[in-house]
Records
---
Amino acid sequence: MSIQENIEHITSLIESAQTKFGRSQGSVQLLAVSKTKPPEAIIAATQAGQRKFGENYVQEGVEKVQYFNQHYPDLSLEWHFIGPLQSNKTRAIAEHFAWVHTIDRAKIAQRLNDQRPATLPPLQVLIQINISGEASKSGIQESELFELAELISTLPNLTLRGVMAIPQNVPDYASQLAAFQKLASYQQTLATRYPHINTLSMGMSGDMEAAIEAGTTMVRIGTAIFGQRDYSHAHTE
Ligand SMILES: *Cc1c(COP(=O)(O)O)cnc(C)c1O
């Protein structure tokens, strides 16, 4: 299937899951994860109406943002940074992206705020939570959530929109659902203190349906749109 057909297929899966789980139509947005994929693949996705794209690697992502700003400004693509954050790369992210999903410490939030150009709207940010509690995975523990949210709420160039997680990759639906429900409950607790937050970034190609049942508002889909990734030429810094 072509990239356009894949997007149409994913969109119809999202629509039927919204119906199945009593979610309103349009409540789940699709972020197309284009890491390692060339501009032609992104152009194909835009031909199916896709406008939001997620990138994981700073250098590769910045090159794509610049390329599309220069050659396709009328598409008005919305770029989301969804990869691990290093403090020496925050400036490039603050200058090029509209969203960051992976804030996991105060220092990174402060740097993104300080480096966000005054000419751009505030950076839309999500706090990444380590939902499976594995030492190897990035993201904060639940106990650190409110402190980090409080700091972000004082930073004028960042707007806190919600939370994100990458749960352990497990095949069974019940475990996927349980992990996503946990993240959704953190989001609900956070929303009692910050009523404007509205984004729950969870669900990938292998666990999208469970994420929709649990209340996701943004699924991050790569493989099911663009096919398998080839990392041999990627800048994985
Ligand atoms: C790569 C990636 C995705 C997309 O994963 P697929 O399984 O290819 O859909 C989503 N979220 C993050 C954070 C990723 O790094």
---
Amino acid sequence: MENRREGNATMDMKAIIEQAERDLLHTYNRYQIVLDHGDGMYLYDCEGRKYLDFCAGIAVFALGYGNEEYNNALKGQIDKLIHTSNYYYNVPAVEAARKLKAASGMDRVFFTNSGAESNEGAIKAARKYAYRKDGRTDHEIIAMNHSFHGRTMGALAVTGNAHYREAFEPLIGNVRFAEYNDFDSVQSCVTDRTCAILLEPVQGEGGLVPARSDFLRNLKALCQERDILLIFDEVQCGMGRTGYMYAWQRYGVKPDIMTTAKALGCGVPVGAFLMTEHVAAASLEAGDHGTTYGGNPLACAAVEKVLDLFEKHHIIEHVREVAPYLEQRLEEVKDRHGCIRERRGAGLMQGLVFDRPVRDIISAAMERGLILINAGANIIRFVPPLIVTKENVDEMISILEESI
Ligand SMILES: *Cc1c(COP(=O)(O)O)cnc(C)c1O
């Protein structure tokens, strides 16, 4: 409560929302609340109402709100140095890269500012790898239907949702879409120009769909046989959410290139694409890729501290303890309500699939002090901060059931 901006305490939300709708570009149908500050698992709007948060800014704020060590690390870095350029070295970037390598099992890191930008880098790395082999410029990428990789032109080109892409064509070309969890479908897209297969180990926006183990294992074998790069987008399912630091570790299928963002900085905009030494040595070279902000000292101080706190507070172990309980409680809710078709997901990345649009349920929950988010029109997604407790799960379930 200390950091509450008093000026806002008396401002009425309706006036702020009206102003926002005059000034901001209308690309989101926002829920009608103005959030002001947070504390642990709870958010407060600017009229002082309290909300249990099961969205975490869409799988971002893993450590909960107002974590003192995290906040102090950022404040300390702000007083030292916020930005340099990638033409110089800085200690937070070096340390963050070392820790991220250890957490991810990958060998080389390029820091970016977002998930989409991480996927842009991954696509460029894959194309350059193939180009250096045969000098051709007609290489193809296989991506998945119902995937989501971001809104920039390259990331959009590999996003398996025609509605998101259509108005913005032509995007980057030579992308083929296969069915997720259907190895034959992927195989039928492979040509002698395929340079990469890109997918999320657990599809997020596409509806909380975990990959099948045999699907990933078959893809890995195919990629090794044909020297195709396997790219995993771990932007949403990475950073502990499935009970593993990165979801590929749960399957034991290691990608050649991996992208991460969302919870990586726990709110400071930062992402990364990472690769094996083999790919690093044979793809992007000096001058091939860059970013002004990516990996700046402030962002990397956040990454470093987030990775430290994951270890210190045993976040992975905690997820493994709470996630089965969330799963069990959601199964019970599903069994009690005929309008729920299915529960699916992995770890603290869960979805309830309804037979109707869920926006009204989400609004009703918000009126009762619970923040939820959808994934597509008919699915409620549960991606709470990873510090969520069983008591928080119980509180969420009781509000959810009232709202249904
Ligand atoms: C959110 C998301 C992205 C895009 O990340 P931004 O930071 O919004 O650009 C990419 N891939 C996946 C799997 C995501 O969930």
